[in-house]
């Protein structure tokens, strides 16, 4: 697997992502609750601290959990939540060792369809529906992994010309567009939640007023 990647916005980290299937998976796993560049720089930082030029699933799976947590916690930390992410990275690597003999690329190498590949990605520890679809789109758009129906399986993230996720980042400009999209989506979700809270509050007040009226109403004289 060789690709020109700009997710980390750091040459050495992007070079690793472009040639290492496991680094790409780990970067995607880390991509939550922190900036994308920070997440996708993580695999390179881990490799450096392990004093190797690539990540090895078997080595990480067998690593002492406490020591691996400290490795991710060392400043600069790999993630905002290094302990929980250390656990998730090791769970992912153990799964790859058990199911794919430690070969991350085997997850997608012989997938016959986008639906099959999506199912395989969703089976990975730490990969829910959305993360699996984004990574599927990333494989198709930037790594040339394109089984039949891959765009459809990736949902909106597979759309050509979109700027929704890491799958669409090819440089600083596209990174800015993806970030703007995420901010707009977050603002819309916040506004929708506020509107729902207001509706619920209004409904509660209305119900309370009606109950109060019924309670205070004088009973009819027989």
TrEMBL record:
Ranges where the record places region Disordered: 192-222
Superkingdom of the organism of origin: Bacteria
This protein's name: HhH-GPD-type base excision DNA repair protein
Organism: Streptomyces xantholiticus
């Amino acid at each position: 697997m060789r690709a020109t990647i700009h997710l980390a916005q750091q040459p050495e980290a992007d070079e690793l992502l472009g040639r290492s299937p496991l680094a790409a998976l780990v970067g995607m796993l880390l991509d939550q609750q922190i900036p994308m560049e920070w997440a996708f720089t993580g695999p390179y930082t881990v490799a450096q601290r392990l004093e190797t030029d690539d990540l090895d699933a078997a080595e990480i799976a067998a690593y002492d959990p406490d020591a691996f947590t400290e490795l991710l916690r060392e400043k600069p930390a790999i993630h905002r939540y290094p302990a929980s992410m250390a656990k998730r990275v090791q769970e992912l690597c153990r799964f790859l060792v058990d199911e794919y003999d430690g070969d991350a690329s085997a997850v997608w190498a012989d997938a016959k369809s986008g639906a099959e590949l999506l199912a395989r990605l969703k089976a990975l520890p730490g990969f829910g529906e959305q993360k699996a679809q984004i990574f599927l789109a990333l494989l198709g758009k930037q790594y040339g992994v394109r089984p039949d129906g891959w765009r459809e399986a990736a949902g909106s993230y597979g759309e050509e010309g979109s700027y929704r996720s890491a799958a669409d980042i090819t440089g600083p400009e596209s990174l800015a567009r993806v970030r703007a999209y995420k901010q707009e989506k977050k603002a819309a979700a916040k506004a929708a939640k506020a509107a729902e809270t207001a509706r619920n509050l209004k409904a509660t007040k209305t119900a309370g007023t009606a109950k109060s009226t019924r309670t205070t109403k004088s009973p009819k004289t027989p």
